[in-house]
Write a structure and sequence with these properties.
Number of helices: 12
CATH superfamily of the largest domain: DD-peptidase/beta-lactamase superfamily
Strand content: 15-25%
Low-confidence stretches: 1-30
Strand order of the largest sheet: 2-1-21-20-19
Mean pLDDT: 93
Number of strands: 21
Structural class: alpha+beta
CATH topology of the largest domain: Beta-lactamase
Shape: globular
Largest sheet: 5 strands, antiparallel
């Protein structure tokens, strides 16, 4: 290389270096919550904080914050607290056991007394689990019950409704998330009805329970089959009246449409379990002489286990709770944290508070539920990040914990699939949403920087009675840009 060529190369290298430093400086100046903070101009309250966690130079460096110690509603970000508390209490491989027990003896295939289903507080108990229980009871030699089927929810249930949605749902509900809570609940405290088209247009749709051929509840079917490609629109409501739970279905379904499953919260979770279990016993040829009943009493110490079924490991339950933000599962798991019988939601919240108070530097925390449905829940962005960092430091728990967060690029919630590829592929997030009595949009989780460093972030945006409706795009769009700048600058 000639002398002039070498001089040009040195000059180019110097200019490139200066330009790179300028770009990094510019990026660092923008690596804060400046964009998200503009929502304050619209009257929204914000608590936000992001910082690095790695042990290298600039460890725990603050990247950006907006009133990080301000107490605001976290909505379903509460579930991150629940997950951390449950993992610390039970461990990732813990399973909840539901069982059939009896103090009576078996005489020539006849159980000479009551058959008791003892709810184990399994947040993910399904009809498949109940069917396995019945099959195992059959294998144990029981062919007849000379007594009643008793569903025992002695651990907790019926849990008092403390939110407007759940209280209204005792009589009427058009969703599944307001399902009542019980340690003996099945199918997330909900009824599932399958709706399929008839063979010809104009006829009523074909309907039936998803998990039983027996008519356990009344189905008021007003869904009409329409010609092919006419569109499918189904509305469903569970009503409880003198007939018990009634599923009222209206709308239409096209002749070429696929069958649809419709879930609605039941009127009483333990009673639903009793009805489903009784239907399965009959289907298995096990006759029960007396009518079923629900009890809040613990089975006697003399009761022997006849059949049992375990839940999925806790780490798998958390995937469902966090990814789908399942409120029923979250509150049941939170109630499992309470050691005394007949637990209520405030006690569950206090159990999570006790866990958080053990974390140095956390600050105040108020939880009335583990799901975040209760608007009284309060924490700060700083507090959330303290909890996230503590989990990051626990090598045996962190893999199970972080796996329950969603990647925007691959998460099941489509509304988070936005922003640049940097945001979508470098962030692990849990969101929280409330609309009444005021808007809440919250997000928290982890990120990996361009240099491979770990960071945590927490953002809570709360409205009030005078602020306008707040869409997720108004929060996620600026947040994704703010986090992207922090990721690229570090």
């Amino acid at each position: 290389m000639g002398r002039f060529a070498r001089k040009r190369m040195r000059r180019w290298s110097l200019m490139t270096g200066v330009a790179t430093l300028a770009l990094c400086a510019s990026t660092s100046l923008l690596a804060d919550f400046n964009r998200l903070g503009q929502l304050q101009n619209k009257g929204f309250s914000i608590s936000a904080e992001a910082r690095l966690l790695d042990a290298g130079s600039g460890a725990n460096a603050l990247l950006g914050s907006i009133t990080p110690d301000r107490q605001l509603s976290p909505a379903s970000v509460t579930k991150a607290y629940l997950s951390a508390a449950a993992l610390n209490r039970f461990g990732p491989q813990h399973r909840f056991t539901s069982q059939l027990v009896s103090a009576a003896s078996i005489d020539n295939g006849v159980l000479r007394g009551d058959l008791v289903f003892e709810g184990g507080g399994d947040p993910g108990l399904t009809t498949e689990n109940l069917w396995r229980l019945v099959q195992r009871l059959h294998l144990a030699g029981v062919r007849e019950v000379d007594g009643a089927l008793v569903v025992s929810q002695w651990r907790f249930g019926a849990v008092d409704c403390i939110t407007t949605d759940r209280c209204n749902a005792l009589n009427r509900v058009a969703n599944a998330y307001s399902a009542p809570l019980s340690s003996a609940g099945v199918n997330f405290g909900s009824w599932c009805v399958n709706v399929a088209p008839a063979t010809s247009a104009g006829a009523p749709a074909q309907v039936g329970l998803c998990d039983s051929q027996t008519s356990l509840i009344t189905i008021d079917n007003q869904v009409v089959t329409r010609p092919a490609n006419s569109g499918t629109e189904i509305s469903a409501e569970r009503i409880t009246d003198e007939r018990g739970d009634v599923m009222r279905l209206t709308g239409q379904i096209s002749t070429n449409a696929t069958a649809r499953d419709v879930y609605r919260g039941a009127g009483d979770a333990a009673e639903t379990t009793a009805q489903v279990l009784m239907g399965m016993l009959n289907q298995a040829g096990i006759q029960v002489r007396e009518p079923w009943r629900v009890s809040s009493s613990q089975p006697p110490g003399s009761a022997q286990r006849l059949a049992a079924v375990d839940s999925q490991p806790l780490q798998e339950l958390l995937l469902r709770i966090m990814n789908y933000s399942n409120n029923y599962m979250a509150d049941v798991l939170a109630l499992d944290l309470v050691e005394t019988p007949q637990a209520q939601l405030r006690q569950a919240g206090q159990a999570i508070e006790t866990y958080a108070q053990s974390l140095p530097g956390h600050g105040p925390l108020t939880l009335y539920s583990g799901s975040g449905l209760t608007t009284e829940n309060r924490t700060s962005a700083q507090g959330v990040n303290v909890m996230l960092e503590d989990m990051f430091r626990q090598s045996s728990l962190f893999p199970s914990f972080v796996a329950a967060f969603q990647s925007p690029a691959n998460g099941v919630m489509r509304f988070i699939r936005r922003g640049s590829s940097t945001f979508q592929n470098n962030v692990m997030i849990k969101t929280g949403t409330l609309n009444q009595p005021f808007a809440v949009r919250a997000a928290a989780g982890y990120f990996r920087t361009a240099q491979g460093r770990w960071g945590v972030f927490s953002v809570m945006v709360n409205g009030n009675s005078s602020t306008p409706y707040l869409s997720w795009s108004e929060v996620l769009d600026p947040l994704s840009l703010d986090l992207e700048a922090m990721i690229l600058a570090n």
